[in-house]
Amino acid sequence: MCWTNYFFALVDSQGGYAIAVYDPDDDRARKTVSRLIDERRVSFVCPADYSEGSRMYHLARTILDKIATDHELRVLSGRHG
Fold it and tell me: What is the pTM of this model?
């Protein structure tokens, strides 16, 4: 198994999210993203726009909110650690 496959498997097994970020003007990048989707190696795909209000910004904020919420639920249930 190559290291990228291992990395994506590790992220997935730990409940994480793999995000493919690409330059929408780069045809090669689009092909790579399509392959990653077909191989189920990514959870989300976003154009490389990190500005406030962008899809990537919203996705990152949503993932961070979920992590915080999951942590808070573990604390409330007494299972934090």
Answer: 0.73
SS3 call for 44: strand
User: Which residues are CB-contacts of 37 (< 8 A; sequence separation ≥ 6)?
Assistant: 20, 45
Regarding predicted confidence, which is higher, 80 or 2? 80
Alpha-carbon gap, residue 22 to 37, rounded angstroms: 13
The upper half-sphere exposure of residue 55, i.e. CA atoms within 13 Å in the direction of its Cβ, equals: 11
Structural domain span for residue 21: 3-77
pLDDT one-digit tens code per residue, 60-70 = 999 999 989 99
What is the pairing mode between strands 19-22 and 44-47? parallel
Report the domain count for the chain. 1
Given the structure tokens 């493919």, which residue do they identify?
A: 20
Contacts of 78 (CB under 8 A, 6+ apart): none
